[in-house]
Amino acid sequence: MAIPELTGFAESMRDWLRSIGLFSEMINWKLRFFVPVTDEGAEILSKLMQRHRLVDVARRS
User: Fold this and answer.
1) Are 37 and 9 in contact (CB under 8 A)?
2) Is pLDDT at 1 greater than 70 in this prediction?
3) 5, 43, 44, 58: least buried by Cβ within 10 Å?
4) Are 23 and 36 in contact (CB under 8 A)?
């Protein structure tokens, strides 16, 4: 199962994204944020979408 990744976030959003439940990883020297695939994931995604509109959904191959 793929873990949903958030892209296009501003550096100023880092603390807020962590506070609502997204987790981050440094991969190839780049900070990346992910939505957990848990029971709380839908609630976290809902909080994110209440504040920011969804622009695109991309599937990685």
Assistant:
1) no
2) no
3) 58
4) yes
CB atoms within 10 A of CB 35: 20
Instruction: Give residue limits of the domains in the chain.
Output: 5-51
Per-residue pLDDT band at 49 (split at 50, 70, 90): confident
Indicate the pTM of the whole model: 0.80
Place of tokens 């439940």: 21
Q: Please report which helix (H) or strand (E) contains residue 48, including its range.
A: helix 41-51
At residue 13, the 3 state secondary structure works out as helix
Q: Which of 18, 58, 57 is nearest to 36 (CA)?
A: 18
